[in-house]
Amino acid sequence: MNSELVWRKSSYSGSAGGECVEAATSPATAHVLIRDSKDKPGPHLTLTPSTWAAFVRYAASAPARP
């Protein structure tokens, strides 16, 4: 299944590596998969599209942390 996935990360992540998450949509299930960009073969979270949308809304509305 992982060979079918197209992983993306935010353009705000920069190119220095750092602490990034990547997201992909499963063609088979439409679920959103989330992984740590520093541990590509490692575990990932699987979210329903509605849960992913709720997370993105929360992240966009949360105050920035120093």
How would you characterize the overall build of this protein?
This is DUF397 domain-containing protein. InterPro entries: DUF397 (IPR007278). It comes from Streptomyces noursei (Streptomyces albulus). Pfam families: DUF397. The chain is globular. It has one domain. Strand 1 (21-25) and strand 2 (32-36) form a beta hairpin. The protein is 20% helix and 21% strand. It has one helix spanning 49-61; strands spanning 21-25, 32-36, 44-47. It has a 3-stranded antiparallel sheet with strand order 1-2-3. With 66 residues, it is an alpha+beta fold.
Features:
66 residues, DUF397 domain-containing protein, 3 strands, single chain, DUF397, 1 helix, alpha+beta, 3-stranded antiparallel beta sheet
Briefly, what is this?
The protein is an alpha+beta fold.
Given helix and strand content, the structural type is alpha+beta
Q: Report Rg.
A: 13 Å
Strand order of the largest sheet: 1-2-3
Put simply, the count of helices is: 1
The total tally of domains equals 1
Q: What's the overall average pLDDT, rounded?
A: 87
Q: First CA to last CA: what distance?
A: 38 Å
> What fraction, in percent, of the residue positions are helical?
10-25%
- Into which percentage range does the β-strand content fall? 15-25%
The H-and-E topology, N to C, reads as: EEEH
> What overall form do the CA principal axes indicate?
globular
Low-confidence spans: none
The total count of strands amounts to 3
Largest sheet: 3 strands, antiparallel
Domain DUF397: 5-59
Protein name: DUF397 domain-containing protein
